[in-house]
Amino acid sequence: METAVDRDRSTITGDPFRHLIYRQGTWDKSSPVRVYLEGDGLPWVTRTRVAQDPTPRIPLALRLMSRDPGPTLYVGRPCYHGLAGSPGCSPWLWTHGRYSEDVVKSMAAVLQRALGPDIDREITLIGYSGGGVLAMLIAARIEQVGTVVTIGANLDIAAWADHHGFSRLVGSLNPATQPPLPARIRQIHLAGERDIRVPAHLSEPAAARQPNAQFLRLPDFDHNCCWERAWPAILAGLQQRAFALDPGALQLHPATAENRP
User: Fold this and answer.
1) Could you give the angle at which helices 157-164 and 200-208 cross, rounded to 10 degrees?
2) CA–CA separation, 122 vs 11, rounded Å?
3) Are strands 18-24 and 8-13 parallel, antiparallel or unpaired?
4) pLDDT tens string 5-28
5) Is this prediction's pTM over 0.90?
6) CB hemisphere CA count around 225 (13 angstroms)
7) Into how many domains does the chain fold?
């Protein structure tokens, strides 16, 4: 399900996979752009049965983009959004290989092609859940990236797999064991204290080894709630030189806490 909003949709070939993209807002050649990367969606139907289409039922990153005045770009993952039958796609790319070199390389390529050959703008990568893992891996490959924002991201995929008793994602790149990002890239890692899918304590050590990084725990948030409602306040915080949030703007009430499990 996608949020209804005025945006341009197209499909672009990366290297080598096809990707769905959405472009939103008013663009010019030098305006900064925020790029949204989606979570893992539904790689597995059960612990033993792989999904035929991993597209998320609730695309939270796309919903966050709809609350952003832009200019913004949503870059879909390879084989997602109805493209699972495209050439080169296989279930490995949304299960154990979901953060593999092949996936990261193709997403970096499609991002550069979507922005055009004359890129003269600062890029902010915003990744939700597994999209935050990809944001960290893509940021090292694109010079124009100035900020990385992750939301409930499993920044140490080995620790995350071990915590849940999953098999490790052999073939995927782990941000926790990659070289730290350059200090010129500002990093803001947001985690919900109530998140049991990606507990904050699993990712915080990986964030701590990064230069120019902030790790913020939000007390009333979990993996789904309440990022969409709070997103305008979080975007306002991004405009500040030192990222800060107004606790009053993030205060939650039972009537407004959406998607609470």
Assistant:
1) 160
2) 23
3) antiparallel
4) 557 999 999 999 999 999 998 888
5) yes
6) 17
7) 1
48-83 residue pLDDT tens: 889 999 999 999 999 999 999 889 999 999 999 999
**Domain of 191?**
8-250
Whether residue 3 is contained in a domain is answered as: no
Q: How far apart are CA 60 and CA 55, in angstroms?
A: 12
8 A C-beta contact, residue 127 and residue 198: no
Residue 23 is encoded by which pair of tokens?
Answer: 């472009």
- Strands 123-128 and 33-37 turn out to be parallel
Query: Does some domain include residue 30?
Result: yes
43 domain residue, yes or no: yes
In a domain, 255, yes or no: no
Residues in the chain: 261
Q: What is the CATH number of the domain that holds 220?
A: 3.40.50.1820
Partners of residue 78 on adjacent β-strands: none
| 43, two tokens | 């790689």
